[in-house]
Amino acid sequence: MAIERWSDSVLLVELQNEPALTDDLTALLDQLAGNRSAHVVMNLAHVTYLNSSNLAKLLKVRKTVQTSSGRLVLCGIDATVWGIFLVTGLDKVFEFTEDVATALASVQLNG
To answer: 56 Cβ partners below 8 Å, 6+ apart?
Structure first.
């Protein structure tokens, strides 16, 4: 995973499939623990499957970001992964955009 500090308040996270996904989400949570008001743009373009553990970690990232008055935006969602969000009802919980550029613009303009 690459965590890139895109600006002073925005982290851009590029996620990969398992087995790296779980470790990457844990590393992100560790990094967010010391960050105040960090917005996170998470690119899932290379993720083709999410299990319940991954979903739980995504929810924890969301809670951590929101607790510090930040925003979490997910982008680049694969059709299979989108189906998982729909079936679980998490499509109503997370904020989504089509691509990284749109997500970064959204966070910068509405952050």
So the answer is: none
Please list the rounded mean pLDDT of every run of 10 residues in the chain (111 residues): 82 92 91 81 96 96 92 96 96 97 90 58
Full domain range(s) for residue 22 = 2-110
The CATH number of whichever domain residue 51 belongs to comes to 3.30.750.24
Report the SS3 class of residue 39. Answer: strand
**Beta 72-75 vs 39-43: how paired, if at all?**
parallel
Q: Is the previous residue joined to 19 through a cis bond, with omega within 30 degrees of 0?
A: yes
Specify the number of domains making up the chain. 1
* Cβ contacts of 88 within 8 Å, gap of 6 or more: 55
